[in-house]
Amino acid sequence: MAESFSFFQKVNTDFDKAAQFTDYPPGLLEQIKVCNSSCHFTFPIKRDDGTIQTIHGWRAEHSHHILPTKGGMRYSTLVNEDEIMALAALMTYKCALVDVPFGGAKGGIQLDRREYSDSELERITRRYTYELIQKNYIGPGVDVPAPDFGTSETEMAWILDTYITMAPDKLNAIACVTGKPIEQNGIQGRKGATGRGVVYGLEEACSYAEDMKPLGLSAGLQEKSVIVQGFGNVGYHAAKFLMEADARVIGILERNGGIYNPQGFDVEKVAEHRAETGSILGYPGAELIENPNDGLELECDILVPAALENQLTAENAPRIKASIIAEAANGPTTPTADEILHKRGILIIPDTFLNAGGVTVSYFEWLRNLSHVRFGRLDKRFEDSAQHAMRRAVEKATGYNFSEEERELIHGADEEDLVNSGLQDTMITAYQEIRETRMQYRNSKNHVDYRTAAFINAIHRIAQSYMQLGIFP
Ligand code: GLU
To answer: What domains can you pick out in the chain, each with its CATH number?
Structure first.
């Protein structure tokens, strides 16, 4: 079955499906849907061997209904204008859904980072940032990039340094980019945030016994078998936190092949093996999956695509055996696959919700940068002493002595505790809201799945912003 649609068209199809359940004026819906601005720039770069190469970069700001706009910066050969606009649109809906006050944006450079040296990547990133500054596509109140596929805190540090050098407002300049290294005004917990958010989201979704029953599953993540596609920042952290939640990570798939063990992997050890050997393949005791695409079709409870878009297609959807698809990547399921999987009774937890943990913690980082104070700085010590005073009083009054383990739980919250608590609350609240919307339309003749319910909630929140602006009555 051939599928001819662009990524941005797919996002808009999902939007249209949801828009039918609202009664906003068509003009308002159109305004929400379109990409407000996008920019393609090309610039020359001198390679280490002296040759000159033209680099193609994009930044799209999908929605200006709230500023700044926000979204990652990816380095991949698949980057093009349509992809960046689609991903920027997904950021708009994602932020609205988890109530993070940003419009959506996304940027990218079309390259395979493995073909470039560190110094070439630094020159490219700095020049790209310079282009963003010139075109007013970056700034703490304008548009704030972050890591994405193929980028990390290193690139964010280069972006920050380039921006600060040129910034007119030095006071707030550090909030021009998030996902920065901790020593450069980053925030504790940002690196693992998307993966951690995936697990908080899954934990909430799997906590409803009545939702798990039709899938033939019991409530809770414990003992659920999981296959993760992609072992980058998101895939690695999702796998690690799933293991910590007592799920069994039985398969890990990378572009050059996958590993399988029905007993479950120690994810940290797999990461160590990769650091030593350069690949997850050859991990002791694991079965080799030669073609990673075959790994997607293996028996498991939860399949976590955590790589790129269009991985579950009309072609492989009929053979997927997972009961739950947890979209840690952006856009991993094509529209036809979505329909097929849905008809087969497979639960899809959509990207717009499930991978929103990254931007949620980016929001906390941005707030920290603008307030110029680390979370927990003012109250940690006070809370610490108050809680211990309380413990001592309880011990004295009751004669009960707290165990060492219990004592460890009693402490004032530091930055990471607060970040994780804010992230968990955000994921739980957003899931409950999506679930409620889905229930509301349960008997409607047009079936509402979680993706559509998520879009409905996002549309309501964005429409409210436009109405507050007084543009639409
Ligand atoms: N790149 C991440 C995403 O797709 C994070 C974006 C951000 O933190 O701004 O959601």
So the answer is: 35-184 (3.40.50.10860), 188-376+413-451 (3.40.50.720)
- For residue 445, the model assigns a pLDDT of 63
- Substitution site in 187, 351, 359 for ligand 1 pocket (most atoms within 8 Å of beta carbon): 359
Which amino acid is it at 206?
A: C
- Please give the average per-residue pLDDT across 96-108, as a whole number: 98
* Cβ atoms of residues 245 and 219 within 8 Å: no
**106 is a catalytic site residue:** yes
pTM for this prediction: 0.95
CB of 346 closer than 8 Å to CB of 216: no
Residue 181 CA to ligand 1 centre (angstroms):
15
Would you state the pLDDT for residue 446?
A: 60
**394 C-alpha to ligand 1 centroid (Å):** 45
Please report the atom of ligand 1 found closest to the CA of residue 147: 1
Provide CB contacts within 8 A for 262, sequence distance 6+. Answer: 225, 250
Strands 248-254 and 225-229 turn out to be parallel
Of 106, 191, 224, 240, which is the active-site residue? 106
Residue showing tokens 């639960």: 347
